[in-house]
Amino acid sequence: MHQVETPLFSKILFPIQFDRITIPALEMVTHLARQADRFVYLLCVIPEDTPDIRRVANDALRGVAHNWLEGKMPHETIVRVGKPAAEIVKLEEELDVDLVVMATHGRTGEKYEKLGSVAEQVVRESTRPVLTIRPR
To answer: What is the Cα 41 distance to its own chain's centre?
Structure first.
């Protein structure tokens, strides 16, 4: 009997911050997702839910999806309200994703050891594999 292989990472969650470090991570997501029709969730976590903030976040996510994913792979954009790390971990469970890909600044030092970056918090709390991408 011939067994069909399931892709290792069929559903990818990509939290996005809309800064310069996003592009290398987005390139990695599109590379991974193109390999076997993987599904990509683009996520933006906003600090508060006002109509203006939500509209800007939705428009920005749709723009990224249009420029990078449209016609190339199945995807969905999601805006959540709350603390980024907590919302990412919560959503990865809800969506049953196989991989979280995150851009990170890769900063070090006492300030970051005490506070911890969002990517670091997600790596610590996630039950899924987390791939962090640092810009060159």
So the answer is: 7
